[in-house]
Amino acid sequence: MAPTTTMTMTEHESALQTVRDYHRRTTHRYATYAAGPETLDWDAQPAPFRHYVGAPRVHLPLATDDDSDVAARLRLDWRMLDTGLPALPATLGALGTLLHLALGLTAWKSTGPDRWAVRANPSSGNLHPVEGWVFAVGMPGLDDGLWHYLPETHELELRASFEPGCAPGLHVALSSVMWREAWKYGERAFRYCQLDTGHAVAALRNAAAVLGWSLSAQPVRADLLASALGLDRLPDFPARRDQATEIEEAELLLGVGAGQPAGPLPVRTVQRWYGTASTIDPHPMYRWPVIGEIAEATREALPPAELPVPPREVDAPCGRSVGHVLLGRRSAQRFDGRHVMAREEFDGMMQRMQPCRAAPWDALPDSSRIDLVLFIHRVAGVESGVYFLPRGPLDAGAGPALAMHHALPRVEGLQCDLRLLATMSAPALARLARSLHCHQDIASMSCFSLGMLAEFQVEIERAPSAYRALHRQAGLLGQMLYTEAEALGLRGTGIGCFFDDAVHELLGLEDDGVRTLYHFTIGRAIDDARIETTPAYAGIATEALAA
Q1: Domains and CATH numbers, the chain
Q2: I need a surface site. Which of 178, 374, 439, 546 has the fewest CB within 10 A?
Q3: Can you tell me the distance from the alpha carbon of 58 to that of 344, in angstroms, rounded to the nearest whole number?
Q4: Closest CA to 95 of 136, 55, 50
């Protein structure tokens, strides 16, 4: 297949081979896991927050401030976001709300001497490789320039000031400190960074919806975005041992529309750069050069490709507030193995997994297809077993690898198009789900778990950078599962560890036509009473947010 990017044919084939090789070598198998560290020094974990020493800072208002224009919106029912709220003015307070609801802290957790932050956007292992940036011109209270977001203190720090005369506009960018993930997960970390990027995009899009704003990805070459973010200024990222631990990977540029369509990032002339990056890891124990290789092979920008989808229908109120869902979201660590999910709740959630012209799906417009394989343990009126849920019509867009699912019997009495693969006893299904997910109980004690099946081969042949896009789409879908679970009073957990080939064998998939990229599990969480929860930001009663 001819490349659709600006790569030459030789470059395309080389990058494509790199993607194939990387995906195969980072596949978990029963006999062996993907290469990772043999030991972890938890006292020397990479820094979870980065700042730029010497950069001027500006404090941001919180979404929960009493005088915030969005305080009333946080009390709205979660389903009200589907109606399309009126746009609020682009102010410093509104920008603070966007970042607080999407990338900010939502609580601190502690047990004994250990203390860690919980954020609005989830992350594999709570390692949070994603960094947030703001390009702001004409924003009241901010100098025109590039600003780096500090979630620990909810501030912006000025990384670069712009020459006068730039066109007004607001853009958010994301980058990844890939070493934060690689420190724990080794070579598979690149996958997780892309999933986390998708989660962050969905979190930003939902936060923008609270403000009545639009937000969408802008096609831009990774090297140009890296330059605009100053990530190629290596002297600003001093490393004591290995440069790979300190540098960041430019991921995405997102245009923000405050009452008007988001536009591309105009050319800006930097007047001055500020600050030196703080150290991520002064004493790394391992090196994973393959992460740099796959990053380089997948940097070419993909042109946006709209998936023809219907508008979203506004559902009945769910009874949970916007503030509860966005700032109360947590990842479950354990599930109540006796809880049975209501049939209508499951049906509604699966319907809302269908792509549509609404948040957060419109943030990453993409024609690639991801369907779901479900391991249903405890849903009222649905037999325990393995099921298939197409996200889109099976007769329009499904590739040859999914043709076998056309003949699967549809589960009666549901509005979602759930297809039966096989029923099995509850104990047998629990053993299967646990085994496929690296022997983790969270996949078997929940109401259901699932895997995300992507049309893989045709997409990466079209453009190797689709490897990133597919994982980001999966991460965005995962964030939708998180919020919908929270809206029902349940909890979700992303599962990055699963035996890829064993899942494919279960489904009769023998080649790279379809690959499973991300797994998820949902149920009623069991909280650990030994863990203490305290407010995210001093003086803010975050426990009142869910009222």
Answers
A1: 50-107+115-297 (3.40.109.10), 331-523 (3.40.109.10)
A2: 439
A3: 47
A4: 136
